[in-house]
C-alpha cells in the first residue's frame, strides 16, 4: 500500500467553487498514474459516483456546479495508483474523509434552560464565497428564523427561543480549519413562567438576495434547540398585606405607603406595591391598592 492519504479541500477557481482532492505522491520510479473517483453520500449508507478521472497529477478538481455537485452534499474521493507500464498492478484504493459542502451550525444541536443565559451559535460556510462581478463585498446574507416544533401554526403562542439577530452576513475570509466564512448569533430561552415541559425549537438559515443560483437554490440544514423547563419561584402579597416570600417566609406589613416588594439582582426586574388605609377607625390596617412592575 502506498499511503496516498487523499484529503478534500475547498478552493475558488476563476470565481467558481471547486473541491480539490489532494494525495501524497510517493517518490517512486517509474512515474505513477492515478485514478480518482468522486462520490456523493446520498444517505449515510448509500453513495453514488459523480466523477471519474485518470491523471498523472497529485490532485483532482471538481466544480460545485449546482447539478452534478450541489451545496449540502457530502463528498469523498477514492484514489488508486499504478505505474504507467504496468497498469494492471494497482495499489489498494484509499478514500478521503467525507467533506460537507455548505453552511452548518456549530454546535449542531443545543440544550438550554429557561435561565436567561445567552448561548453562542456559530454559523459557517465550509466553501469559499465568490465575489459577484463589479461588486467588492464577498458575502452571503442569511435570514434567520425560529420555529417551535411543539406548537401548531394555528395557535403559535409566544416563541420558546429568541435570537440576537434576524440576519447575519458571512464575509469571505481565507479558508482555515473547516471554515471559509463565519458569523455568530446568541440564542436565549424565553422565560415564560409556564410549566410546559421540555420543548424543541429549530433555528433556520436561508440565503437571501442571491443572484448566484448555487446559493439561491440551497436551504441549509436547521439546528434543533431543546429548551429545558426550570421551576418558577412564587411570592405573594394579599389582603391586609400578608406576605409570603420566595423562600416561604411569612410576615404582615400593616404600614401605609409605597414599598419595593421585589427586585432582581441579575436583571432589570422589580415590583413596587402601594398600600393604603382600609381599616377605618376601628383598626389600623393597610391593604394593597396598587402595583407597578418593571
UniProtKB/TrEMBL annotation:
InterPro entries hit by this protein: Dev_Signal_Modulators, Ig_VWDE, VWF_type-D
Species the sequence originates in: Formicarius rufipectus
Name under which the protein is recorded: VWDE protein
A GO MF label: signaling receptor binding
Any single Gene Ontology cellular-component annotation: extracellular region
PANTHER family xref list: EGF-LIKE-DOMAIN, MULTIPLE 7, 8 (PTHR14949), VON WILLEBRAND FACTOR D AND EGF DOMAIN-CONTAINING PROTEIN (PTHR14949:SF52)
Entry keyword Disulfide bond: yes
Domain VWFD: 233-294
Source taxon at top rank: Eukaryota
Amino acid at each position: 500500500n502506498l499511503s496516498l492519504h487523499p484529503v478534500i479541500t475547498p478552493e475558488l477557481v476563476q470565481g467558481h467553487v471547486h473541491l480539490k482532492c489532494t494525495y501524497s505522491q510517493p517518490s517512486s520510479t517509474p512515474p505513477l498514474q492515478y485514478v480518482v473517483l468522486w462520490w456523493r453520500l446520498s444517505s449515510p449508507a448509500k453513495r453514488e459516483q459523480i466523477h471519474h478521472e485518470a491523471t498523472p497529477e497529485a490532485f483532482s478538481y471538481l466544480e460545485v456546479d449546482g447539478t452534478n455537485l450541489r451545496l449540502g452534499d457530502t463528498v469523498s474521493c477514492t484514489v488508486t495508483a499504478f505505474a504507467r507500464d504496468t497498469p494492471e498492478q494497482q495499489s489498494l484504493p484509499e478514500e478521503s474523509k467525507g467533506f460537507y459542502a455548505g453552511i452548518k451550525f456549530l454546535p449542531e444541536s443545543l440544550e438550554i434552560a429557561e435561565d436567561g443565559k445567552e448561548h453562542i451559535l456559530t454559523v459557517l460556510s465550509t466553501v469559499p464565497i465568490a465575489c459577484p462581478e463589479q461588486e467588492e463585498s464577498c458575502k452571503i446574507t442569511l435570514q434567520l428564523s425560529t420555529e417551535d416544533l411543539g406548537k401548531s401554526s394555528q395557535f403559535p403562542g409566544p416563541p420558546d427561543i429568541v435570537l440576537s439577530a434576524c440576519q447575519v452576513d458571512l464575509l469571505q475570509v481565507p479558508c482555515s480549519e473547516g471554515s471559509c466564512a463565519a458569523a455568530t448569533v446568541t440564542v436565549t430561552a424565553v422565560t415564560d413562567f409556564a410549566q410546559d415541559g421540555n420543548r424543541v425549537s429549530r433555528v433556520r438559515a436561508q440565503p437571501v438576495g442571491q443572484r448566484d443560483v448555487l446559493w439561491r437554490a440551497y436551504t441549509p440544514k436547521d439546528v434543533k434547540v431543546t429548551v429545558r423547563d426550570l421551576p418558577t419561584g412564587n411570592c405573594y402579597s394579599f389582603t391586609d398585606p400578608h406576605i409570603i416570600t420566595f423562600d416561604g417566609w411569612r410576615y404582615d406589613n400593616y404600614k401605609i405607603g409605597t414599598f419595593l416588594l421585589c427586585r432582581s439582582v441579575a436583571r432589570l426586574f422589580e415590583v413596587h406595591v402601594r398600600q393604603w388605609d382600609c381599616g377605618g377607625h376601628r383598626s389600623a390596617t393597610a391593604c394593597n391598592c396598587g402595583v407597578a412592575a418593571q
